[in-house]
Amino acid sequence: MESQNSGREEDFTTIRITKKDRALLDKLALGKECAWETFRRVVQAAAITDIKKKEPDDEYKGMSARYKRTIRNIERCFVAYRKEGHHQVSFTQIKEWINTNSRDGVSSPSLSNFLRRRPQFHLVRKERRYGTNEIQCYWAMEYDDGSPVEKGEASPGWVEVPLTPDTGM
Question: Which CATH number fits the domain 58-161, given the four candidates 1.10.10.10, 3.40.50.150, 1.10.760.10, 3.75.10.10?
């Protein structure tokens, strides 16, 4: 009697599925309609998991959370100065902004390391104060809007230093 009831249940169970799901199920050759519903739920769960799963940032791949946070702080600094109309920011301005606007400060060596090694930051120009050895570096960030990185001009009282040092070799 029980086998007759289970067969009867399978005969009267109808499941509404989309044409796309039907084509996928025919391709996989699942025999029973009860397996179709299970399969559909598994596919939906996998799709939802893919949507919910944060995709790793390719530009931050392989970096620890601390370094990602520091890079994002540097990027926020450039965005803040860009809103004020400054497209090139000096090294000291970047360092001061990060140290005042973030919970974790940054040292000069680590900041210079981040600026030199990350592809989104570009050294635009170097200036030397007239009559001294004091050098100031200006950096710019590439933005997604496609605006070109401008070189800019030397400040008054400063002399522009070539970016590629001529060693004479």
Answer: 1.10.10.10
